[in-house]
Queue: 2 jobs
Job 1
Amino acid sequence: MEIIEHPPILHVAAIPDHVLYTWIAMGFLAVVALVASRRTSLVPTGSQNFMEIVLEQFVKELEETIGPEGRRYLPLIGTLGLFILTSNLMGLVPGLVAPTANLNTTAACALIVFVTYHVIGVRKQGFIPYLKHFAGPVPLALKPLMFVIEIISHCARPLSLSLRLFGNMLAGHILLAIFFFMMGFDGMLGWALSGSLGGIVVGAPAAVVMVVFVVGFLLPLKILVAFIQTFIFCKLAMLYVAAAVEEAEHH
Amino acid sequence: MQRIVTMSLMAILAVPAMAWAAEGAGGGDMAKAFAVLAAGLGFGLAAGLCGLGQGRAAGSAVDAMARQPGAIARIQTAMLLGLAFIESLTLFVFVIAVILLFVKS
């Protein structure tokens, strides 16, 4: 990987890259939030208007998934969603690193969701009733088996949540890195500039085709993936919270 | 026919392994060679089968949307979630392949 990949622009020796760029994303979001809420008015304009539209989408999804009390969980889901979206889009800027292309960042996000929805469930129903729901609506003889299966499925949730985001981002990152390597000075463009006949006949057109392919197809695809993965992460987090909250009403 | 293909594939896969074993190559080289082989084969299998599964899911979703244009938004959400679950299995394989290829053991 080190051969085909350039180091990021900003690099501090003592700090891992994903931590540094997590801080940058956090700082960016904090500045945006400050600017948007500096002079709040009843008739929003400019950045306040934009942030309100963004957050209204979150509220709409929350109320659709969790129900009328879904707005309570906006701080959790909204923060995660904005942070993940910013980090995903940072991976598209040359020279920056997407913090979500590192398993540590995504595992942190997934563990926050995991712990929070269990805390919400225990708070809503109490510890013993919440544990009872793991056994599910099956005959008594099957309950121990059901309990174990349910525990395993709950433990698999943060795993799949973190690996899905991480895998998508890392796959896009590696794909872009390989294509930039192939069309750059070490690849087709370098071959075309080397002055040999083969380079001029084959290398130059190939470099042009690759640039068109990357700009016209790969980058839009990566933008789409960044948004879809953010949506899926938030939607799954909402579904988990909804499952923890809802069980109180069913039984 | 299928059996012949399977047998010959296995033979093709086994021959270089046996050749290396006969040469008595270093253990690290063997492990690296098999890691590359496993990453390629595994990810190819995973991607192909994931394509089959996602095609089925997306096809059914488009079917449902054509029948019920009013419910397009909800069908789309369900489809995206389903696709994410199918895809995550492929991504597990992808992560394992990356570990096999780039993590030095």
Job 2
Amino acid sequence: MPAASVYLDHNATSPLRPEAFDAMVKALATGGNPSAVHAVGRKARGLVDKARRQVAARVGALPAEVIFTSGGTEANNMALAGAGRRRVLISSIEHESVQRAVPEADIVPVDGEGVLDLAALERKLAVSGEPALVSVMFANNETGVLQPMADVVRIARKAGALVHCDAVQAAGKVPVDLHGIGIDYLSLAAHKLGGPTGVGALIVRADAPFVPSRFGGGQETNRRAGTENLSGIVGFGAAAEAARGLDSTLRDRGEAALRAIAPTARVFGAGAKRLPNTTYISMPGVPAETQVMALDLAGVCVSAGSACSSGKVHRSAVLAAMGIEDAEAGSAIRISFGWNSQSGDIDRLIAAWRDLYIRVGKSDIANARAA
Amino acid sequence: MTAITQIRRNDQPIYLDYQATTPLDPRVLEAMMPYFTHQFGNPHSRSHSYGWEAEEGVEKARGQVAKLIGADEKEVIFTSGATESNNLAIRGVAEFYKDRKNHIVTTVTEHKCVLDTCRHLEQQGFEVTYLPVQKNGLIDLEALRAAVTDKTVVVSVMAVNNEIGVIQPLAEIGKICREKKAFFHTDAAQAAGKIALDVEAMNIDLMSISGHKIYGPKGIGALYVRRKPRVRLVPLIVGGGQERGFRSGTLPTPLCVGLGEAAEIAMNEMEGEAKRLTKLQARMLKGLQNRLPEIFVNGDLEHRIPGNLNISFAYVEGESLMMGIKNLAVSSGSACTSASLEPSYVLRALGVEEEMAHTSLRIGLGRFTTEHEVDTAVDELVRHVNKLREMSPLWEMAQEGIDIKSIEWAAH
């Protein structure tokens, strides 16, 4: 591996924060089953409880509302099954772990900037009196576009609906306040905010209904069976505490530079409020795969979409939902930085993008002039 | 590998709860480390070297797990642990084949997550037969044969019991299941890496494995799913379609690598470790039996993993004993349910009387247990059992030859 690789794929996974690493190494050495009653077990229990407070604090929840899971996917699955509502409405840009968990769901569209159509949500909710669950993500994983959660909650409440929010990409990057907004179920993944992979959480508001979907020992106060992933949970807690948000300085500088190099490049969702770390940009006429490979050879790691499906060659469902034509969507790459990104990383990105553009994007310049 | 005996600090209690969880083997931690730090990529990222390296780590681990159980690496699915594996195996097949079959066979001594899953399926309309066990904890094969019908979709019998350590006759069970065309699932959380397992020779179709029971990390497990003849499952967790669609979610690379390494170490050292633990187990038992009358081993001693003893100390209250032996980390049952004071359902299933079930301790020996620790534990146990018995009127009466059971207690 090139030692000097620049990692700009934090929305796929973020490297472990040193705070998390240190806490985990200690926990791995301590060991113990948090459910055992002897001293070793009780010590492990104490570590889990501390992490529960740290995670709760990051998203404005109470410690008792935190259910640790194996990650964001499990949390999303658990919420959609656990709310016990047959009628579910989801946005057209939800993560696959939401979409596939509720294949019958009613889909609420987004506009051209990738923002949920609130009027459509209101209309759809009014169609039937059956109590519903509305699932809208806090921030989209590809575009980084923030969704109007407070409005979603207001509209949902009026219709007697519960609200689930996949905050996997948002937590730790922007403020998330479960009780402030009034969200009933909130999904989190540790590795997106600098914690380890293999751990996440579903926050269930104290007064929200919840039916567990995994059976066994009575862990997590009977809401999620299985021996706790001790080191993972401890790492999650430490990372959650350390993840106090990102600012958009690096992103803004990079975006401005890329657009200056390639004037026809389009930043998707640029007109909406976005996460401070995400740029989803097209280099018209150059397939995303070509860009990703060329940038990788130049030591800059980005992706052509979400990691879960980035192995497969298909167009982004998110961009399709925003009404972006296939030709343009096919040339979109996602650049996402994180807690350890530096100014020099952005310089490397800009240089690599410029070199690529000069090499293969010439026809694009010609096209632009001809147009 | 001299360092591995230094796992315990002197101020820590002696750890004798290896069936609850095992310490991470330092060699496993070492293998995991790079994947926490510079090789941190998402194994599903295909567009850069960080992703490829992580994927390589995951796939190597998959091969290591497969080898431990005689499987093909394509048949191993990573999960968050044995509880999830058990849920997925049983619910997955039950739901997939529900149009044709509606019956499940399991045993009364299974882990709680198997029993709870079965109860959930009963509520969904499935029929479940809970086979009793014999006094020694083993199932009666003829009873199994009689229970399996052409409506039976899966037979779920644990390989090794988590409380009493007894080993079920897997090959014989597998043979019956194959004959009767029912899938055979085994919860091998306590067995993998401790006894030889071979999914081919034993005709096992689904097998659950846990990381933290074999000196690997918590938060990771595996499910073996046979490909020939193919076993199909409805996934419990859907999303990005990872793990051949059976289990979505970003794979935790360091944890997968840890499980793989733990599996390989367990395989390489299984024989030597079994011999060593057999000696320690005998030393522990003899030490106690020589010095304490009226103690009873629960479960078969012969068909048992060497790392387990489950002993009832008559005339002693289990909780008081637990409180007394603060220097020993042991348990009075399984960790998952040990916070409750109910007597063990496993011991009750063997026909152990309630009083005797209440006086039982599960003693787990493992890779880092030393002879000195065993001797210290024996001393400690003998001292506290004697002390508690001295205070017990029942013990006094028993010493005087009174049959306790014949006493008619006055109501108050």
